[in-house]
Design a protein that fits this description.
- The complex is a heterodimer of chains A (312) and B (249).
- Chain A is mainly alpha-helical and 312 residues long.
- Chain A has ten helices and three strands.
- In chain A, strands 1-3-2 form a three-stranded antiparallel beta sheet, with no helix packed on it.
- In chain A, strand 2 and strand 3 form a beta hairpin.
- Chain A is flat and about 95 Å long.
- Chain B is α/β, with parallel strands linked by helices.
- Chain B folds into two domains: 163 residues, Rossmann fold; 78 residues, no CATH class.
- Chain B is built from nine helices and ten strands.
- In chain B, the strands form two sheets. Chain B has a six-stranded mixed beta sheet with strand order 6-7-8-3-9-10, with helices on both faces. Chain B has a four-stranded antiparallel beta sheet with strand order 2-1-4-5.
- The two termini of chain B are 36 Å apart.
- Classes of the chains: A mainly alpha (312), B alpha/beta (249).
- The interface between A and B is medium-sized, with 20 and 25 residues.
Chain lengths: 312, 249
Amino acid sequence: MRAPSRGMVWRGALAAALLLLALASAHHVGLTSLLSASAPQTGDRASPWVGLMQLQLSDRTEVSRLPDLDIDNLPLFSRIETVVEAERQMDPATGREVRSVSTRHYLYRPFGYVAEVAAMLLLSLEIAFWGTALALLAAIPLSLLAASNIMGNAPARSAVRGLIAALRAIPELVVALFLVLLYGFGALPGVLALALHGAGFLGKFFADDIEDADPQPQRAIRAMGVSRLIVWRLAILPQTWPAHLGHVLYLLDRNLRMSTIIGLVGGGGIGQELKGRFDMFDYGHVGTIMLAILITIFSIEWFSGWARKRLA
Amino acid sequence: MRLDFEDVTIALAQSVRPLDGLSLRIGPGEQVAILGPSGAGKSTLLNMAAGLCRPTRGRFSIAGIDGSLPAARELRKRIAMVHQQFALVRRASVLQNVMMGSAARLAPWRILLGVYPDAVVAEAMSALGAVGIEAHRARHRVLDLSGGQQQRVAIARAMMGSPAVILVDEPVASLDPLLAEDMMILLTSLSSRLGASLVCSLHQHDLARRYFPRIVTLENGRVLSDERQTAGAGITRPPRDLRRLSRQS
């Protein structure tokens, strides 16, 4: 057998070193604990996985907290539930146990929580929509200033490219954290966070589309003695808008998913409810919310696929 | 509008000179064929007239005004070019492409919003009619058209605003002989009707002889020969049956 060459020895040593490094890193991130037999700690509470299955659909509100409720005209499908509860209290004067009966009336709505989730999902959709719309509005001038075939001035173009990169580099969640400090909890910081990040995303991809456009018609229109803005409108936009539309639909899709997350840091919408219920161990509610998000994402997926096919 | 090339040279890197001391005068309303082998400078000559490149040395002027001066900008709007690859916006409709020919004359906001005056739409439709594109094709996208039809659309775009000079780069390079005859008839008759001068680069000697009163031959970036044919004697139209055949195709 031939003795291994010096190159092979080096390569073998390098491979062994990389393997060791990978193993150390796997241990560092805790992957090795998966190999040990012990199950993840759940504590004495019911496993959240079981809780998630028990979807919470209904809700119950005490009638005394609904001053405007008209007993004769209840909302659709809802009913009044009367709960008689026996209570044992200690009489402070005598120190004896006293039994009392209290009667409580509840308005029970079988799909009350679903309606609530739907309303909050709608708010999330609105956040995503406005985040995308404002991003689009900002991205059009940004991309024009960043495209070499429209903006001739190289230093200015680089500055705009840098701004776009910075907008894209900061994650929405981090932007939202700061905006929540500025504007308080609610939908507005969510919208602005999505818009800022989206403007960076669309700005970059629009600018790349514009630079990739067929140069021949651009030359022809430019020779007519018109401004670069007109060249863009006539010779570039008709070529690039299908690609632009694809990017906008992708951003909308992404923002719809992000808008559910952005509520976690106070950006409004369904995420805020999700976080609240999760922290209160209401896993049934969490299950309903997650299912609703899933259905929404699937519908959006289907719709954006349909729209792309129709428009492009 | 007179075009003057006075000792024009374009010098690129590594002593490549697409034009090298070329002098040529093209008078108003003249119909000139530019012949010459590939790389002789035909396209560069046309591009310079269209304002797509500038002379390194020498002078190019439009109606006596130096092409590099701001004053030439307005004159340049009256020079239209039909590019070899047509340079149409393929995804846009035929009508939109033709209307682009009037871009320099319209207010920018109209173009940005895509709101064209009725007069421009009517002019574009009549230009399409003049080049033989049926009205129902106006809403089709350019990429749905054949190569020959795309070229006609490019000519219609060049006709917008009745230009004083029409520059055409290799109009018959990709056409079969019958369509090539048609194209020559179309170009020469349109330029006569508009009173515009026609400068057309060609590879085919026989087409140039039959349709153009003046033939300029280039070689290595300068004028090799400049022949004028006496009208009527030199110019012959193709036989009738040939023209009829080409209409049907």
